[in-house]
Amino acid sequence: MKVILRKNFEQLGQVGDVVDVKDGYALNFLIPRQIAYQAIKGNIRALEEEKKQLAKKEAKDLESAQKFASELENVSITIPVKVGEEDKIFGSVTSQMITDSLKEKGYEIDKRKIEISEPIKSLGIYSISIKLHPSVTAVVKTWVVRE
User: Fold this and answer.
1) What are phi and psi of 60, to 5 degrees?
2) Distance of CA 4 to the CA centre of its chain
3) Residue 40: exposure state from Cβ atoms within 10 A (0-12, 13-18, ≥19)
4) What pLDDT is attached to residue 106?
5) Looking at the DSSP assignment, which residues form a beta bridge with residue 140?
6) What are phi and psi of 18, to 5 degrees?
7) What is the pTM of this model?
8) Check whether domain 69-146 has CATH 3.40.605.10, yes or no
9) Taken in order 82, 138, 133, 70, is the CA torsion positive or negative?
10) How far apart are CA 97 and CA 127, in angstroms?
11) Pick the CATH number of 2-63 from 3.40.5.10, 3.40.50.11270, 2.50.20.10, 3.30.1490.20
12) What is the pLDDT of residues 29-72, one digit of tens each?
């Protein structure tokens, strides 16, 4: 059976690809989970419309992510931590601590979007990357200071 993919599916291909699969796989797995359409003329037109809507949504998401990234570039946060001898931090600064500091400033960011390249275990100034969109990353200046 020929089907048209509605979503990127690792085993089969990308959105819009026409692939030939076994009837049972298409009828019992791909079509009920809305991963694919049966390849007929009406469904091809419906998929083209879905592609247009998806492209508009992606452009809108990208634009809003770029605006938010430019806002975040001007933000710097301070994280007070307890320190021991030689200014060593007890534990390390986590993405949750950064999220909480940003929330205090009025920015809601999921902690999974924060990328810390190496654990922060000493006082200082760090640049923390926040992945807002697959192609947009913002950098927030973070000050780790003594409590």
Assistant:
1) -65, -45
2) 26
3) exposed
4) 92
5) 128
6) -100, 120
7) 0.70
8) no
9) positive
10) 15
11) 3.40.5.10
12) 999 999 998 988 888 888 888 888 988 999 999 999 999 999 99
